What we know:
The protein is globular. The protein has 3 helices and 4 strands. The protein has a 4-stranded antiparallel β-sheet. The chain has a single domain (12-96), classed as GIY-YIG endonuclease. By secondary structure, it is an alpha+beta fold.
Amino acid sequence: MLNNENAWSEWLDFNGDTISKIPQSAGVYMMHASMKILFIGGAENIKISIQDKEEEQCISKATRIRYMQTPSYEKVAEDLIKDYQDRHEGKLPQCMQ
């Protein structure tokens, strides 16, 4: 799936098989459906974080996911959210409101 840090994976189908292959490392991730970002997150363990989010009603609508392994996940996630808000009139992604 993804071997080098600080590089995004390709957009992957959001399902149990994909989630099972996501590494248990620090990083950030984005989920989308119908070409709209639903959620931007970061965690010390992205696999567990994604598994925890999977059951949330809004997140269950996601069809694709991508991730990046990075030890500076907090800063990267913050920057991604700020960039999203700058491009969407200050709004957060749908599942973060």
